[in-house]
Amino acid sequence: MITLAVDCMGGDHGPSVTLAACRQFLQQHPDARLLLVGQSDSVQALQHERVQHVAASEVVTMDDAVEVALRRKKDSSMRVAIQQVKDGRADVAVSAGNTGALMAIARYLLKTLDGIDRPAIATQMPNAKGGATTVLDLGANVDCTAEHLLQFAVMGSALVSVLQDRDDPRVGLLNIGEEVIKGSETIKKAGQLLRSAANRGDLNFYGNVEGNDIFKGTVDIVVCDGFVGNVALKASEGVASMISGILKQEFSRNILTKLAAIAAYPVLSALMRRVDHRRYNGAALLGLRGLVFKSHGSADALAFEQALTRAYDAARNHLLDRVRTRVAHAAPLLAASEHSS
Amino acid sequence: MITLAVDCMGGDHGPSVTLAACRQFLQQHPDARLLLVGQSDSVQALQHERVQHVAASEVVTMDDAVEVALRRKKDSSMRVAIQQVKDGRADVAVSAGNTGALMAIARYLLKTLDGIDRPAIATQMPNAKGGATTVLDLGANVDCTAEHLLQFAVMGSALVSVLQDRDDPRVGLLNIGEEVIKGSETIKKAGQLLRSAANRGDLNFYGNVEGNDIFKGTVDIVVCDGFVGNVALKASEGVASMISGILKQEFSRNILTKLAAIAAYPVLSALMRRVDHRRYNGAALLGLRGLVFKSHGSADALAFEQALTRAYDAARNHLLDRVRTRVAHAAPLLAASEHSS
């Protein structure tokens, strides 16, 4: 039995989306239990034999400063959900709330693993090979050292080996050229560390990759600092939404193009299915002594259910142990590098 | 009469593309003259009353290290083309060669303007409003200070006011959130500098923008360091090419989808036209005491002609004077900031 603690109040839509997703998720996963965390009148709307309700009187809003969420709202649904993981009552927590607050609370309550300075956020993006590329970090850390990038690579390898059942996933270092000499001093040093880690068998390092490689599917994991990752993710979303906007506009231009839209419908829906960001919803917070997954704030029920499923898969496949083992294996290198820096 | 010095040997395809583009460009621009720079037997293939040939015995290849291009190949077509600008024989130079080499040679020969530490590369990307967003820097500078970002903003404003005839183009600072408190220390300080510059009337600062705003068209100019800009550009190209790949695949799946492709052809070509990166080819190297434009290395004749046209427009509208004037106007702020940092 896998138990998920769900922050039912988080996200742009709150319980109307999260509870609908939970209901669907329970049907699909007969060995899952849910702890629905939130204000009693809201979460009681979903009754199920594998559901338990956990009261939390406060809600972290999307606009709340991290300090407010962390210090003042001590009975928030987000915090109480993570507390369930800390207390061993749940295997993983899932929230669609404010990313900064979620990261801060998770880090405060769960603490980081030995050998990890900073947790990272890892998400998947669709690629041209029909698979997905895992990218980290995505906004948790704006200034990263080479050592942090190495830690991300180790944790990302554990994540992909668990969620995509890849034994030896390939790691690429996001850079502005494939050549070893490219990039800032931090990136060059990260490249050296990743090569050393590969030589020691800690991970499978492909080398430098560029922004387009995320979508080509050149590697399984792309490592970058949170600033760059966030910009790459949002720029990509921007292009995809611009293209879909243009398609809508052009197909509705006149009666002929509208007929063409009907003819092209199967193709367009195949396209939408393949790049539908809802299918990739559910980012892992890695490097903590407990599992936490983050859904997009704007997720609908289908997307939130996807995040639940990903969290469930991670818990069932012992992601935490896998991360811990990989980090421990890389510990001598991590320690040596920290020491020398 | 506007005179362009064209590095005919640069790019993936060399004279077969550059000369074809030049021929077309001459037809469209009766008041333009071209100095065709390159190995004599190659460039002589284009004869025209407004064409003059300038011999250069060497070629900078795409793989040449910057040092090789700069120190050893002193008679390269790239260098000789820029020398024409330096010597006042041409108003602007255009090359599709190796970006790093082009930047290094341009900087070495032309020097930077007073008040500018580092030149930047500025390019346009299509946006959902049907216009284009100018983004800089795109790879010339991997580690930027807040002062550099301010310099980019000032130069980008001059570029857009010249090329798009906008009096007071809006500048956004690329960040991972709209709030002033987001981002690294460098970004926060850049935000402060940009606000001061706006208060002094040096530029029109919108505030922070995110990756997707590039394609939404929220602002006219997006300022970022070269690493982030390069990743954003390439990630965007990656998404666009993944989507076009999926469309091709799905439309060719069976006889029905192939018929649908015929029906949808006008719509698909409208889409392709609107996001065709060839239409946006021609990046400006800003901050030098002379005009240089860079074409994509993989440009075809249409794309290279676009770069020629952009360079021509820049020269005709006195981009260099406009950049110089704007930089001079912002000089007190630039100097004060450098001093305080």
Estimated radius of gyration of chain A = 21 Å
Counted up, domains of chain A total 2
Helix content of chain A: 40-55%
Strand content of chain A: 15-25%
For the biggest sheet of chain A, the summary is: 11 strands, mixed
CATH level 1 name of the largest domain in chain A: Alpha Beta
- Give me the secondary-structure category of chain A: alpha/beta
Summarize the structure.
The structure is a homodimer of 341-residue chains. The model of chain A has no long low-confidence stretch (mean pLDDT 91). With 341 residues, chain A is of the alpha/beta class.
Q: What key phrases describe this protein's structure?
A:
Isopropylmalate Dehydrogenase, homodimer, 341 residues, alpha/beta, 49% helix
3D structure, described in words:
The structure is a homodimer of 341-residue chains. The first copy, chain A, is globular. With 341 residues, chain A is α/β, with parallel strands linked by helices. The mean pLDDT of chain A is 91. Chain A has two domains: 1-110, Rossmann fold (3-Layer(aba) Sandwich), CATH 3.40.50; 114-284 and 319-341, Isopropylmalate Dehydrogenase (3-Layer(aba) Sandwich), CATH 3.40.718. Chain A has 13 helices and eleven strands. The first copy, chain A, has an eleven-stranded mixed sheet with strand order 3-2-1-4-11-10-5-6-9-7-8, sandwiched between helices. Chains A and B meet through helix 8, helix 9 and helix 10 of A and helix 8, helix 9 and helix 10 of B.
List the helices and strands and how they pair.
2 copies of one chain form a homodimer.
Chain A: E1 2-7, H1 15-28, E2 32-38, H2 40-43, E3 51-55, H3 66-72, H4 77-86, E4 92-95, H5 99-110, E5 120-126, E6 132-136, H6 146-163, E7 170-174, H7 185-199, E8 204-209, H8 213-216, E9 221-223, H9 226-251, H10 255-275, E10 283-286, E11 291-294, H11 301-316, H12 319-329, H13 331-340
Parallel strand pairs in A: 1-2, 1-4, 2-3, 4-11, 6-9, 7-8, 7-9
Antiparallel strand pairs in A: 5-6, 5-10, 10-11
Helix pairs in contact in A: 1-11, 3-5, 4-5, 6-7, 6-12
